[in-house]
Amino acid sequence: xxxxxxxxxxxxNPQGTSICSECGKPLQIDSNDIESNKSLLNMRYDGSxxxxxxxxxxxxxxxxxxxxxxxxxxxLIVITLIASAVGTILPQEMYIxxxxxxxxxxxxxxxxxxxxxxxxxxxxxxxxxxxxxxxxLIGISIFIVSIDRGVPLYRALTNQKPTRHESFLxxxxxxxxxDFVSQDDQENIIFSLKKHxxxxxxxxxxxxxxxxxFSRWGPYVNHLxxxxxxxxxxxxxxxxxxxxxxxxxREGDTVVIPKTDGEYYVKNENFIxxxxxxxxxxxxxxxxxxxxxxxxxxxxxxxxxSTGTQLIGQDPDLAEIxxxxxxxxxxxxxxxxxxxxxxYQQNEFSSISFKIHKAEDKDEKALANFTVDLTKPQSLYxxxxxxxxxxxxxxxEYFLDEGVPRSKSKxxxxxxxxFFVYPPNQGEPEISFAGIGRNVSSGEGNEYKxxxxxxxxxxxxxxxxxxxxxxxILGLGAAIFMIGVIQGMYWQHRRIWLHPKGNGLMIAAHTxxxxxxxxxxxxxxxxxxxxxxxxxxxxxxx
Amino acid sequence: MSKIEDANIxxxxxxxxxxxxxxxxxxxxxxxxxFALVSNLTKEKSMIEKGDQAIPFxxxxxxxxxxxxxxxxxxxxxxxxxxxxxxxxxxxxxxPYMESLYPVYKEKGVEIVAVSVDATELVINRFVExxxxxxxxxxxxxxxxxxxxxxxxxxTTLFINPDGEVVEIVKGPLTLxxxxxxxxxxxxx
Lengths: 542, 189
Hints:
heterodimer; A: alpha+beta; TATA-Binding Protein; 5 domains; six-stranded antiparallel beta sheet; 24 strands; elongated; B: alpha/beta; Glutaredoxin; 2 domains; seven-stranded mixed beta sheet; about 45% helix
């Protein structure tokens, strides 16, 4: 490893240093830089060596140096941005209708482009392995870049000496030289610097006035926040830390809460859907225009904990732990879980009542009544006056499949029955078909008919099951990120060097941003003195 | 001992420490990356896969002489675990195949268990009567077993060998010859 010895003070600097850390004299790395001798100094990282540039030997160092490159980091970010944009061209898989095959959907809706999009896996882009690797590489890059630059910068700034080499001052952007400065003016400027809240340090008449150094840590604080944020999102893969599931519950039912390993159960006591009052004049006009507007979705629930261990499928022993109402944005919380109101269905029947009457009776006078509980239909109903009804077939969601009655699902959304009606003292049943909105007796010569007299419906509530212990971590990361942004954004690291030369004074000023502000401030500092205003050497060159 | 030697030793230590530091950090970051990738890949996978042990359960049996069926009681037998429902047409189509092979393979130590995910016993009973099914039909009313096995489309059939290991998972209906092939695979030797 080549060391750089400063020819002014003899200090040995590590390779890659551009400004001697001891006296501030610019170090010439090779003859090409002679050209830049007159030009301004590059003050990035205060001229200290970025650690990765110092040596490059083992494989570990090579990997380290790869990630340490800001160019690589920016490239990764740009690639990720492009990929993220590509993911928005067509809807992601989670946003397409749930009842279609993704392969067909993309092809049918978007043609050959959609097909390619699907086949490249862009329909699940944000959870693809390569997208995750990109994000992870950015994280690694941020981490290593911060260590590699933050540490030397910190050292350089904490170790800086008030005495800087002449050429260091001369090659600053803001510089002035005053041939004669009176003792009074020397005191005035120091007083004035202090008044402007500069920290003033002195060494043999050389002065360094500095303020806002902590703004230099802004980017690193910001990166720390990002890394905490990425770490938090990594924890979301652990089921203990993060759960996001969904469960449908019919009124009156008790079901196991998913992702709780069968530990918790929830009972839907009642689902309530309230709408704004049509009579209320505040709403009546809007309701007339737009139709009914919901004012409340609510599920009254009881939460149970299962005691003891059961095999799957066995009825659990339940102990009530909580009772309450879930409304939109007002979840019920228990033992780290939260249940949110997120969906509902209203089209399910829970029971249907029928009567038996004579087919030719115009008044349809009930000879016998019965009610079928759709959650537990019996096969035989013994009725008053000696009638009996047997359910031959039950179709919860009735439809005709090429002329054959079938059920679409197990949910009683359109229940229909084939009944065997046994009149009193008769061995042979009559066959009747009955359902919502239809009651046909299948036999022509049927003496009896089964008619609908009423029904009860029940609602189904859809609850989201959530647990998220990563939120505090994500919040912390985001807060630290913002602190870093504010720190670096609203404060500037300003330095003013005073270098006595004979009876005069050389002055250089540097800031990491807002040169205009620094110039104004400097003008105020020297206002009551004969000291020359600093000249912007960069502008002069132009 | 000169200053130069001291400096060299210091330099060597510094280099070594730096190498250790960098290696540790890179390893930690790599571990985090691998963790994220593996978690993401396994997230959507079904809970049960070929080679896994069958998950024990107890369900109400709707036909035959037993009231309940405990899967663990069938240890030592090959088990065909069929998930179905009365409203599922392909399930209905494969039932006669299962019924026709059942008596033969029951003799050879293979049990067929059909798990219905219907809502009511009535519809299952009517179905069993219609097809005269003799193998055990159990009722997974709350869908708990279906969830535990993470069954997607119906029918889905698992073939479990006498050691309780899932050797085959078939999504969709089976033909008679394929069914027989799978049954032979789980037949105790």
